[in-house]
């Protein structure tokens, strides 16, 4: 318990420093765009691949499980859309990014710590935590909702492709299902969730990397801790946000 | 000028620096020497505020560093240049961007002025053609030179060099040592070199502070150190067979 409180307190202090007034906005602006490319654009490939298969599998599994004459075929399209928008796109993509982006952030900052690059920033009078971490958090919070929207379209497209390529559901029924009873609030809820997940994906691995000590081995451990902790907190935050907004 | 008064630093139960007092004048190369683990790097880190001593004062031209507010301390640090043991160049920046970084952050210079200053600094360390290279493409000696160029780019009044020769061959070490000494004279800055390299001591040691087990054990010039009667200093200076032969 003491260890947990120590870590929590240190994390809060770090976040306080991260969100303090930046030294020079022009430097941060350049870093923000670099991070948007690194965290967002560079993740498009993996998001596309995961989303297309995710949508295809949701469609097949829904079709396999509601094989009944009393349930209309458009339910498959409806379920694919709802599952994708409410849960799969924001949460699965967040968990995948926690692995890809989180380990990258923790090892990048951790390596900067053990090679004295962070000390070099501090000696120059730079708030190293804000300089290194703030652009990553802001970039992820801004770009992650866009990635989730792309994932939603690609995932539903994957489901549609399955409908076209197989005879598990007529495409007209599938298209009717994905248009049925659409609530824009659900998209807003998913995007809000994805922004919170983006904060966790960046801030926790950054914290672990920032306080890494010693050797490359320690940097690896910090990276693992960052990914595990951010993944768990994504699931906890997912539950809390769902309870607050959907019930 | 840097003055240290009664500085002590501990990590838990272990006292690393005990009541250190010293004076480092401007315009000459001041060396802090001692065996590994003697506390010399800890002293350097206390001087620049990366560590906070429990007791003692550090004065920069009579201004007490640890009595300053956070913002004053930040301003003060703009007068520091620091060459790290592993150079600590930013991996994701080119040589030019590394040297330009303090200027972007700490000054209001125009782009043209910054370009000019970066060129001057890289020429000063004899690396004018390396601007577009990344640190991973540089040799150890080149990294040190870029580190020096970055450290001097914002015209510091105080230059700290932590083990500037570690991992370098003897010839490159001498080049780096002489570069540090020349820059010290040229800009009339207060330079502090943390080292355990005896070649550096002989080459550039205008004022030497010997630290032994966290205590200030001895101080003097490079001429004094070769003739001292202090046993711990003698053990350090004449540790190698080559130096023993030389003494005979």
Find the count of extended strands of chain A (DSSP E, 2+ residues).
Answer: 0
User: Which percent bin holds the helix content of chain B?
Assistant: 40-55%
Q: Please identify the structural class of chain A as seen in this structure.
A: mainly alpha
**How far apart are the first and last residues' alpha carbons of chain A, in Å?**
32 Å
Number of strands of chain B: 10
Radius of gyration of chain A: 21 Å
Mean pLDDT value of chain A:
92
Largest sheet of chain B: 6 strands, mixed
Overall pLDDT confidence of chain B = 89
Element order of chain A: H for helix, E for strand: HHHHHHHHH
Which of globular, elongated, flat, extended, rod-shaped describes the shape of chain A? Answer: elongated
Strand order of the biggest β-sheet of chain B? 6-7-8-3-9-10
CATH class of chain B: Alpha Beta
The CATH homologous superfamily of chain B is termed P-loop containing nucleotide triphosphate hydrolases
Fraction of residues in β-strands of chain A: under 5%
Low-pLDDT stretches of chain B are: none
Contiguous uncertain segments of 5+ residues of chain A: none
Q: Total domains of chain A, how many?
A: 1
Rg of chain B computed from alpha carbons, rounded to a whole number of angstroms: 18 Å
Q: Classify the fold: give the CATH topology of chain B.
A: Rossmann fold
Please describe the biggest sheet of chain A, giving its number of strands, its sense, and whether it closes into a barrel: none
């Amino acid at each position: 318990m003491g260890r947990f409180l120590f870590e929590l307190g240190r994390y809060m202090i770090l976040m306080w420093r991260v969100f303090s007034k930046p030294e020079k906005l022009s430097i941060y602006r350049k870093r923000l765009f670099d991070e948007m490319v690194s965290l967002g654009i560079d993740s498009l490939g993996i998001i596309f691949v995961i989303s297309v298969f995710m949508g295809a599998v949701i469609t097949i599994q829904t079709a396999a499980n509601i094989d009944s004459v009393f349930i209309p075929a458009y339910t498959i399209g409806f379920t694919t859309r709802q599952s994708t928008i409410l849960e799969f796109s924001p949460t699965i993509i967040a968990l995948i990014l926690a692995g890809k982006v989180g380990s990258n952030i923790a090892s990048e900052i951790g390596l900067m710590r053990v090679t004295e690059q962070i000390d070099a920033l501090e000696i120059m009078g730079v708030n190293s935590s804000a300089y290194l971490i703030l652009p990553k958090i802001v970039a992820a919070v801004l770009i992650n909702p866009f990635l989730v929207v792309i994932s939603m379209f690609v995932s539903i497209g994957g489901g549609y492709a399955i409908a076209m390529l197989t005879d598990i559901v007529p495409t007209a029924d599938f298209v009717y299902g994905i248009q049925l009873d659409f609530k824009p609030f659900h998209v807003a809820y998913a995007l809000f969730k994805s922004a919170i997940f983006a904060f966790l994906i960046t801030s926790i691995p950054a914290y672990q990397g920032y306080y890494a000590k010693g050797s490359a081995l320690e940097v690896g451990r910090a990276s693992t801790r960052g990914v595990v902790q951010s993944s768990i907190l994504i699931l906890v935050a997912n539950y809390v946000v769902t309870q607050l907004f959907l019930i | 000028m840097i003055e240290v008064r009664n500085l002590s630093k501990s990590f838990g139960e272990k006292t690393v620096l005990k009541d250190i007092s010293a004076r480092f004048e401007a315009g000459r190369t001041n060396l802090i020497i001692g065996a590994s683990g003697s506390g010399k790097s800890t002293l350097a880190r206390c001087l620049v505020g990366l560590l906070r001593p429990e007791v003692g004062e550090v004065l920069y031209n009579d201004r007490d560093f640890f009595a300053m507010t956070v913002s004053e301390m930040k301003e003060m640090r703009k007068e520091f240049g620091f060459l790290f043991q592993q150079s600590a160049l930013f991996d994701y920046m080119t040589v030019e961007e590394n040297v330009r970084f303090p200027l972007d952050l700490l000054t209001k210079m125009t782009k043209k002025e910054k370009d000019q200053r970066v060129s001057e600094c890289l020429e000063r360390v004899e690396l004018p053609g390396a601007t577009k290279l990344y640190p991973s493409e540089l040799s150890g000696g080149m990294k040190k030179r870029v580190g020096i160029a970055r450290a001097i780019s914002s015209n510091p009044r105080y230059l700290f060099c932590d083990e500037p020769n570690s991992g370098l061959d003897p010839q490159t070490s001498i080049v780096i040592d002489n570069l540090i000494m020349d820059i010290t004279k040229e800009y009339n800055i207060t330079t502090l070199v943390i080292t355990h390299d005896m070649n550096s001591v002989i080459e550039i040691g205008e004022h030497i502070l010997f630290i032994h087990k966290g205590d200030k054990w001895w101080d003097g010039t490079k001429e004094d150190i070769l003739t001292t009667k202090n046993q711990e200093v003698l053990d350090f200076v004449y540790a190698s067979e080559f130096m023993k032969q030389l003494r005979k």
